Amino acid sequence: ARDAVLLFDLIHSVDRLELARELDRRAAAAGKVVEVLVQVNLAGEVTKGGFAPDELKGAVEALGGLSALRVRGLMTIPPPVEHGDQARAWFRRLRELRDEAGLEHLSMGMSDDFEVAVEEGATIVRVGTAIFGPRA
Q: What global pTM score does this model have?
């Protein structure tokens, strides 16, 4: 958290209130306002962090009360799928949640499913594997 607020203008993975409060504290100490995306765990996967959809409204409200953070949007990584189109329902759900919250950005979609994510409204995609190849 310490280095993140100094190095980055947009932090994509705020997955719990404790992290948000720490980022807020460190950003305030640095005299900086940091933009964040709230991570949503749409499928309730125990291997992933993030707020459950039914916790999201309260989380966004709580983060909105922090002086050195600005919530700009939502982020998710859907459960693994065989074909990109199978992630469409997850992406659509995140868009609906974003619209309900009145936020701007949607960070969703990776190298195998980014086209579907863009069709469903993604404003940010993560395509490292498509650019750099698989991890060694």
A: 0.92
Strands 124-126 and 105-110, bridge-based pairing = parallel
Please give the structure tokens belonging to residue 49: 């962090």
> Could you give the dihedral angle defined by the CA atoms of residues 46, 49, 50 and 54, in that order, rounded to the nearest 10 degrees?
20
Q: How far apart are CA 99 and CA 96, in angstroms?
A: 5
Residue ranges of E strands in the chain: 10-14, 34-39, 69-75, 105-110, 124-126
| Domains parsed from the chain with CATH numbers | 2-132 (3.20.20.10)
The sign one gets for the Cα dihedral 120, 117, 91, 126 is negative
Rounded Cα–Cα distance for residues 129 and 115 (Å): 14
Q: Of how many residues is the chain composed? A: 136
Please list the pLDDT of the chain residue by residue as tens digits (136 residues): 778 999 998 999 999 999 999 999 999 999 999 999 999 999 999 999 999 999 999 999 999 999 999 999 999 999 988 888 999 999 999 999 999 999 999 999 998 899 999 999 999 999 888 888 888 8
